[in-house]
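Intended use. Records like the one below are meant for learning the mapping from a protein sequence to its folded structure. Do not use them to infer anything beyond what is encoded.
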Amino acid sequence: MTATPVREMQTIAVAAISARAMAEAAANDGFNVVALDLFGDVDTRRAASRWEPIGTPGSLHIDTASTLAALRRLAEEGEGGQPVAGWIAGSGFEGEPGLLEQGAAVLPLIGTAPSAVRRLRDPASFFGFLRTRVMPYPQVLLEPPEDPAGWLMKDAHGCGGWHVRHAPWSVEEPLSSHDYFQREMPGQPMSATFIANGSDVHVLGFNEMTVRPFGARPFVFCGAIGPVRVPENIATRVIEIARALTAEFELRGLCSLDFMRDGEAIGVLEVNPRPPASMSLYRRPPGVPGLMQAHLRACLHGELPAMPPHRQDIEGIEIVFAPRPMQLDEAAARELVEWPGIRDIPGAGQRFDIDDPLCTLTASGATADEVRSRLGESRERLLHLMETLA
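Structure written out for the chain above:
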């Protein structure tokens, strides 16, 4: 398929709980980018010509009024003397189809349509489709199980695993339409990172996800490693599922499919209909459009990338969480800026409560185990430093 230049998209906006990965990818692809997120990290502002807050960092929640106000300003004023041609919604918007609709009415949304996101994040709709098509997924109930042992309670509007908890013996508050219960499945949490055009997909690769318990939250997303090799039969099944979901829910642009792998068995968990954190793991060979160019071409022109075979190191990302309440002073902020492989760098004076995301570490290597070891060593050294400085 012939690549169509996206000349009309000189200035775009990216919005998310943390927009750094999208902002950097857009800047690397030659776009002038406006970043809207909660943190305003050093590297986010470095990649963007303009940053605006759309929520408070500790909330991990996007504020509707702030988001719409920022989009209105961009629609009315532009940026740097240029119109802002559209915006891309990232993490935090998957559970906000109403906000996506309102935002799309202000400034064109470049991604999966809000109506499709609403269907995709409706447990009855999503798992009903999987059941009809006989696709594997851990058992789901829309009402509390009689015996909660071995069951998880989830919120389909949540992200990052913070919404997942063990099913309680009694549910005191009324359930919402996006609450559901799912059998816990053993195995390795994984994801497939792909680009969709509403009917077909191009899978960039497969990733191992890192999840850890934080208090009552047993499966908080802490990072990913990829691309990793999976058996051909599993890769084929996952790609077929991603293609079927794309056609049913009209997915567009960068997305990810989360699933469990237990030996030869897989179980679909959810689809993220927006650029995922795992996009940071993928490097483009010389002469090939970058991921944000590919996202726009898929959304606007229905084009999927024709990727030549290429080798790349296995990459890893790991979110580091604050070990205690702290405020970064100038010395700690300087140490973070100079830390090797660091991303999402907070500025001096920023406050953190315990378990707030502090920054993201990166590493690469020849094997997933090597990358995992390097990330772990870097995390422990960094946490030790933070104990002495901040």
